[in-house]
Design a protein that fits this description.
The protein has 267 residues and is α/β, with parallel strands linked by helices. It contains eleven helices and ten strands.
């Protein structure tokens, strides 16, 4: 991403830091309970030891990969540049803190069937797998090489409840959802453009169960992504929308009155 595009996101982060609140400003019982539960879980968490051991290994792996990036690329790596495993591990997968957050919110809500858009090396997928130990994870990845790497990593970690779907998400997601039972949670970390985000959301929201959750990564990645995020917050099926810096959480088809909060990091 060009430097000027990165600079445009500075006001988005300033807005977050100026407006984020903690549990002392939460009057809605649902959000108050959720925030405090996440805070308690995350303050005790240091990530999953086995998964983080694998992450460290990947961060030191200079093996080059020919990866076809179907999304908007990353801030650090050009879409058409050759990439090493270490570069992908450093710049294109979720940090352990973000993975711990996903695990905490999934466990708090008791979700069991999750969809992930953007498998990459399978690190985040492994966290989702362990958070839904008695359920199933369906994860989507466009690149065949990354699918194979993720398969190897998940096998190494003993994550047997994961199904990887390879191919362009625009072509694979809708057919999958038509044939699959309803899911209760989704994590979107794929093509980082506003148009793609809205396409994915539209597809997911029609198939998600009541009281479900759609989590969106990098809502401040660009002005385009942030605009689409705010548009989705106004969707009629969204009851509660929460911002945790660069993560957005949309609670779908709940009985709660419409609420929107910008929240401090619960860690």
């Amino acid at each position: 991403m060009r430097a000027i595009e990165v600079l445009k996101t500075i006001p988005l982060f300033l807005n977050y830091y100026l407006n984020a609140v903690d549990e002392h400003s939460l009057q809605a019982p649902f959000v108050f309970q959720l925030y405090n539960s996440l805070k308690q879980k995350l303050q005790k968490s240091h990530g999953d030891a086995d998964i983080e051991t694998l992450r460290k290994k990947l961060l030191n792996d200079t093996t080059p990969l020919k990866v076809q990036d179907a999304g908007a690329g990353s801030h650090k790596n050009r879409k058409d540049a050759s990439k090493t495993i270490s570069q992908i591990a450093q710049y294109e997968i979720s940090s352990w803190k973000k993975c711990a957050f996903l695990s905490a919110i999934i466990q708090d809500r008791g979700f069991s069937n999750c969809v992930e858009l953007g498998t990459s090396l399978g690190i985040t997928t492994a966290y989702l797998s362990r958070a839904c130990a008695n359920g199933n994870i369906s994860t989507f990845e466009a690149d065949a090489t990354l699918c194979q790497k993720a398969t190897d990593h998940l096998s190494l970690l003993g994550c047997k409840n994961v199904h990887i779907i390879q191919g362009n998400i625009d072509h694979t997601l809708a057919p999958f959802l038509e044939k699959s039972p309803r899911f209760d949670c989704a994590f979107i970390d794929a093509n980082h453009t506003g148009q793609a985000l809205e396409r994915y959301f539209t597809c997911l929201v029609t198939n998600i169960a009541e009281n479900g959750l759609i989590i969106i990564d990098d809502i401040r990645w660009s002005t385009d992504m942030n605009t689409s995020w705010h548009s989705l917050c106004k969707h009629p099926d969204v009851s509660v929308s929460l911002e945790f810096r660069d993560i957005g959480a949309l609670f779908i088809k709940t009985k709660h009155t419409r609420q929107h909060y910008i929240l401090e990091n619960p860690r």
